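In response to reviewer comment 3 from the previous cycle, which asked for concrete evidence that the modeling workflow produces usable outputs, we include below a single protein chain processed end to end. The sequence was submitted unchanged, and the resulting structure tokens are shown without manual editing.
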Amino acid sequence: MKKYIKNTKTWMLLIPLLLISCNKYLDVVPDNIATIDNAFALRTQAKKFLYTCYSYMPRNGSMGDDPSIVGGDEVWSFDYRGAYFDIAKGNQSIVGPLGDRWNHYYRAIRDCNIFLENIARVPDMEEFEKNRWIAEVKFLKAYYHFYLVRMYGPIPLVRENLPVDAGVDEVKVVRNPVDECTDYIVELIDESMANLPADINDPAEELGRITKPIALGLKAYVLVMAASPLFNGNTDQAPLRNPDGTALFSATASVEKWERAARATKEAIDFAHSSGYKLYYYRPDFQQYKLTDTTVTQLSVRNSITEKWNSEIIWANTQARSDDMQRLVTPFLDPVNLDITVTKGELSPPLKVVEMYYTENGVPINEDKSWDLAGRYKLRVSGDDEELYIKKGYTTASLNFDREPRFYSHLGFDGSIWYGQGRYDDGQPNNLLYLEAKFRQRNGIGKEGFGTVTGYYIKKLVHFENVIATSGNTYSVTSYPWPLIRLTDLYLLHAEAMNEAYGPGPEVYEYLDLVRERAGLKGVEESWSQYSMNPTKHTHQEGLRDIIHQERLIELAFEGHRFWDLRRWKKAGEYLNQPIVSWDLGQEVAVNYYRPVVIFNQSFGTRDYFWPIDEGNMNINPNLVQNIGW
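The workflow returned the following structure tokens.
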């Protein structure tokens, strides 16, 4: 058995992955066994170590472990929500960086290496099973490296753990150039794929375990990320060099990276299709009521997230359940039971996110020839045509009218219909739940820590079959694991890579239109040529790039993608320097309520694209260069 460097505080500060203790290697200790020999003595113990390697997976959708929820500009909340919200408010620091995951993921990689170095010794396992487990852990090792690169940029790669007799110079590692990081991550994924299953044969035991479609999906994303402006030809990062002068970023953009990404995204899509993955469409025959096309479209969009293990979920994180998130975004829905505290409704989209969604014609609100952009804050009363979107006869802002189906499927607002939660007959619109979000109304602000802070709610993440009790303080939540890769994600990644590599063309439109069709919209070419004030926008690369970016921001809203996409596109400086705007929530009447109010002015600079490396690590290891601006 290999011997490794002891786990002392000094060594840990150098780089946690390289400094393991044979006495403290697990987060999940098998039956109080604390030696590596015993951990790999039997299959049952080795399986516990396998699960330990999985245990480092992030808790996506968690306020405490996912920066993408409240760390950017997509969702706003109350001030007490912790480190990631402080990042959104510009309070990051090199002393104990907010949301720092450097040590966490290097420990994860350390345990993956221990597993890979010892699994061959397990006596009571067949070779095919060992090979599968090795493939899973290689993938996890790749994923943890990827997560670090996404957060910190170039990182020290750790191909294997250092032995106990490693010298000081060996331990004082340097950061590898970002292209080397990408190549190593892809190398690990490629090595894993030969022994990963195409699908899960035992759902009760294995859902969430790594499969080949997952590996291909992550590879596609990694290569798209590597080809994106943040990592490909980023002149802002050109000065970042190791002490020996090695450049960590290339200042020259490479179109070949986009071509490589396009091949990877197409391979991922083709294999997903061959494995049975397809876009999810809600089947109304499961309902006791005959539903309208309007409701079916909304449920097709909404349930593509909330219906667990549906046909388009390629990878869902079983360690990241949605229960708490659903309670945080669900408003008071029952007009009778107003004292309930198990739902808070406090995570709120700002007006700029609301305005991001298309009009009913499938183009942006500032491009639609027939949509009144200047009058979007004026009042309007809903009629028969809107009664499945907005309660008939209700006065609300014009901004909430004539929008695309995803607008109504993703968002709740003052006067909006909130389909489901025990009321399913859309043939009786007056009996459906609707929101009242002005001051002192049941869904408006009032009790501290409860209710919207912008005037809007996130409906998309709430399963339509959840039910709030009409008495007591209970909320029946239909839980689902947090989706990490959906088929629509791959479609949009492929459209992006193809446009960047080759420009507009039929294949780009094809994959965009598949996403738009499920959302109830016409294709890109038809929508822009007929309804946009810029009817040729989709015919040139730059215009189509903007279309693809906006389509991605809409389709994947609130799933944790916007935070990272704005960074890899180098658009965070544009978006995260805009103010956070809400309605005037302290008002009781519509004419006063529907006035935009700035509630926070965000600030984002070049340094904020990457996390700082903790100052303590920098002091111990002078070979680690700090990210620019920190």
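The radius of gyration is 25 Å. We consider this sufficient to address the reviewer's concern, and the full set will be provided in the supplementary archive.
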